[in-house]
Amino acid sequence: MQNSKLKIKKLLPEIKENISLKEHTTFRIGGRTRYFFCGKKKEDIIRATKTAKKINLPFFILGGGSNVLFSDKNFEGMVIKTQNSKLKIQNCNILAEAGTPLSLLVQKAEKNNLSGFEWAIGIPGTIGGAVYGNASALGEAIGNLVEWVEVLDLKNFKIKKFSKKECKFGYKNSIFKRKKNLVILSVALKLKKGNKEKIKQEMERILKIRKEIQPLNYPSGGCIFKNVKCQMSNVLPAGRHGKTKKLFEKFPELEEFAKKGEIPAGFLIDKAGLKGKRIGDAMISKKHANFIVNLKNAKAEDVKKLINYIKEKVKKIFGIELEEEIIIFPH
Ligand SMILES: Cc1cc2nc3c(=O)[nH]c(=O)nc-3n(C[C@H](O)[C@H](O)[C@H](O)COP(=O)(O)OP(=O)(O)OC[C@H]3O[C@@H](n4cnc5c(N)ncnc54)[C@H](O)[C@@H]3O)c2cc1C
After folding, report:
1. Is the domain of 161 the same as that of 236?
2. Could you tell me if 9 and 98 lie in one domain?
3. Which of 47, 138, 279, 312 stands 20 to 30 A from 98 (CA)?
4. Which of 79, 80, 76 is CA-nearest to residue 34?
5. Which of 123, 209, 331 to probe ligand 1 with, by most ligand atoms within 8 A of CB?
6. Which of 181, 206, 231 is the last residue of a domain?
7. What is the pTM of this model?
């Protein structure tokens, strides 16, 4: 142990020790990490991951911490926070390093009369985190804007470029989420020329919607569950008779959502009567049922219990299995 500490200190002199992860997530939840390293440049991230691998130290790549729930227990490894944020805009192309805040990108797009990114206003976190989970809102997704992604392959420490196709974007999903060996270093996006006034108006409209529907006055990790993508027959297995028929009668919107192929998780949680349900200081938001908010000193254990409670109730009432969107670490 002492030997590894010396090696780490030698290879990563700027590393910090015993850092609270609460301070690095929007949920304001989490224990301490033994080591914490900020990668301000691409090379720093490569150096940190190489060092961790060399001494067999587990590590976790952290962006803005807006989609993670860290355990209350301490992490005996290294959290590597991406803070590499070089940004270049040329015509309609944006090249951004992984640690670039999404909010900055949205702002820059507007400033340069570039349209296509308005929907992302108000989403916290970094472009790296957004690409990892294919962040989306109001029918738009980051994957649609991606040209290519530069990644570090932890298997051989080679840097590769993944085309949009190779990123295998899906709903809240990508190759980076499925495989665990890829660290996003930078992202190339393509937008289109737009009218500044229209872009601004659209951003204001979207921000207003967000403020209306999201509980932004409490710490949270965004939506806890993915919406349910479905075909009528497989999500509601009983088909259009029996239990399903009764459900449609009781909740007419459910049939409408199912017909469109997507049932909002928030709708199911709300209709299960769970808004306001509280365990410790973790509470299902009264404003948006797919948010769990931290009222003050919520523990990860409280949030996890609430997650399981929601899953059980929704399964019992609707026969639907909800899947977490939030990254729980360690799982
Ligand atoms: C109030 C609020 C509103 C939100 N609204 C939305 C919304 O409308 N739509 C939406 O999609 N999300 C939303 N989110 C969730 C979240 O903001 C997004 O998912 C965001 O893109 C996560 O980025 P991040 O940098 O914070 O990632 P983090 O939370 O830091 O990390 C998330 C995952 O990505 C991985 N990761 C991060 N960076 C890299 C990298 N460079 N290379 C490899 N892996 C990486 C991490 O290891 C982790 O597994 C919201 C969250 C909050 C708190």
Report:
1. no
2. no
3. 138
4. 76
5. 123
6. 206
7. 0.96
